[in-house]
């Protein structure tokens, strides 16, 4: 594939192959526009009609279940989970058979990966190193 690139007023032609890496992962904020339980159970009763969250699809608890089922259906799939608070809430609701499936996906099949280890993903919610460390301590 030939591309044209304008560099300092001169067009350069070059060929390249682009590798695109898709990394299916979570970014499920805790308490951004709704409560933690509101996101987890899809209870938007407290969200005003003007609130963006009222138009959002899917509850976090069903997202986790669907990810696990999807990974079991196709061994070539992989998924990365970040927010331990929601995973902990989901885990407490699961029967031992589902927990064993998750253990298999994470430990044996290597299809499910946990990153960060914090209660939430570090972003603007944890702006200082003290916040980041506290997030990791609670998440562990």
Total count of strands: 4
Q: pLDDT average, as an integer?
A: 80
User: How many DSSP H or I helices?
Assistant: 5
The CATH architecture assignment turns out to be: Alpha-Beta Barrel
The portion of residues assigned to helices is 25-40%
The major pleated sheet works out as: 2 strands, antiparallel
- What's the end-to-end separation, in Å? 47 Å
Which key phrases capture this entry?
alpha+beta, 7-stranded beta/alpha barrel, 4 strands
Itemize the secondary structure elements and their pairings:
Layout: E1 2-7, E2 10-15, H1 36-41, H2 60-73, E3 79-81, H3 84-93, H4 96-108, E4 112-114, H5 129-139
Parallel strand pairs: 3-4
Antiparallel strand pairs: 1-2
Describe this entry's structure for a reader.
This protein has 140 residues and is of the alpha+beta class. It has a single domain (24-139), classed as 7-stranded beta/alpha barrel, CATH 3.20.110. 39% of the residues lie in helices and 13% in strands. It contains 5 helices and 4 strands; from the N terminus they run ββααβααβα. It has helices spanning 36-41, 60-73, 84-93, 96-108, 129-139, and strands spanning 2-7, 10-15, 79-81, 112-114. The strands form 2 sheets. The protein has a two-stranded antiparallel sheet. A two-stranded parallel ribbon has the order 3-4.
Brief overview, please?
By secondary structure, the protein is α+β, with helices and mostly antiparallel strands.
């Amino acid at each position: 594939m030939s591309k044209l690139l304008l560099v300092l007023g001169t067009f350069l032609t070059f060929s390249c192959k682009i590798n695109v890496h898709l990394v299916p992962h979570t970014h499920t904020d805790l308490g951004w526009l709704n409560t933690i339980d509101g996101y987890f159970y899809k209870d938007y009763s407290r969200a005003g009609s003007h609130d963006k969250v009222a138009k959002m699809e899917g509850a976090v608890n069903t997202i986790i279940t669907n990810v696990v089922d999807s990974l079991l259906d196709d061994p070539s799939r992989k998924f990365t989970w970040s927010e331990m608070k929601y995973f902990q809430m989901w885990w407490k609701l699961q029967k031992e058979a589902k927990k064993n499936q998750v253990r298999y996906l994470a430990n044996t099949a290597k299809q499910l990966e946990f990153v960060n280890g914090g209660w939430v993903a570090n972003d603007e919610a944890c702006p200082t190193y003290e916040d980041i460390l506290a997030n990791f301590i609670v998440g562990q």
